[in-house]
Amino acid sequence: MQEQIECMGQIYTASDLTLFAAAGVNSDFGLSVNRDPAILRPSKVLLHAEIGNWSLQGDYFFEHFRPIISMVAMKENLPLFKRGWVLQEEVLSARGLYFGREQMTWRCLCESSTKEHPACPTFQSLDHGTAEQAYDTFMGLRLSLRTKNLRVSQPSSTGCRGVLNQWYKMVEKHSERQLTKCSDVLPALSGIVSRIHELHGYSFVAGLWQEDLQLGLTWKVNGDSTPGMIASSYAHDEDFLPPLCASGNPSWSWVSQFCSGRSV
To answer: Which residue ranges does the record assign to the Heterokaryon incompatibility domain (predicted)?
Structure first.
């Protein structure tokens, strides 16, 4: 199992297209879903009307009007995107085809479209102001992990600062997801961690980047804090041994709160 986990980052980064069983409620759920065709196709209705001496009869087609929704809104109601292990598959895959309850959705690095609205929507049509709001929460991080010219040596550099900011946004979303085993909280991000280390040479310690501890330590729990409940293992730096909380995780890391029922 550990060998497969270590390969996940390479597999999804090299993937040309990743298929997501977005409507799947468990790991055995396939891509096929019984969808109501009336949701996407115009409905044929036979009308008959008499007005005075006039009689009208014929077939009329009515189209169900639905506003264009963003990838972010689409994912909110699909069970697959509540699973923690799926997050790095979303982030590392350049292109994704999502098989949802009602229709299929496509996204690449910069755009997304649906079967209902095949033309890639604009920010204006989605009524959002940024690419991440309009298309995908992880769009910025996904681009950062694939853009070689963003490699820089100092955290203060613009490109590197962007990667770190996107990482913190991703951690917040990761903390809202579910894992069967709380010990998987860091392994479920191993592919993303490896990619950031490859591009920027950062050292990953207990869920934080050692080169950006001054900001990484400023996390907070959304709601009342409760003791950490996970028992994950991680490699200690010989010169950097953090104090451990009762769960076996450093109390100053967001990892200690992952399975507390709170998001960070």
So the answer is: 2-89
Token pair 């598959």 is found at: 89
| Number of C-beta neighbours around residue 208 at 10 A | 23
* Predicted confidence (pLDDT) per residue in 132-154, tens digit: 555 577 888 888 887 654 444 44
172, pLDDT greater than 80:
yes
The answer to whether 134 touches 126, Cβ cutoff 8 Å, is yes
pTM (2 decimals)?
0.72
Q: Could you give the angle at the alpha carbon of 92 between the alpha carbons of 86 and 96, nearest 5°?
A: 75
Give the containing element (helix H, strand E) for 64: none
Question: Are the beta carbons of 12 and 92 closer than 8 angstroms?
Answer: yes
Half-sphere exposure of 94 (CA within 13 A, CB side): 9
Q: Which pLDDT score, from 0 to 100, does residue 137 have? A: 76
Contact 223, 262 (CB under 8 A): yes
CA–CA dist 218, 170 (Å, integer)? 15
- Which whole-number Å values give the CA distances from 145 to 33, 40, 59, 199, 202, in the listed order? 33, 35, 53, 8, 13
The residue assigned the tokens 């894992």 is 179
The two three-digit tokens of residue 39, written as one number: 């949701």
Cross-strand bridge partners of residue 123 = none
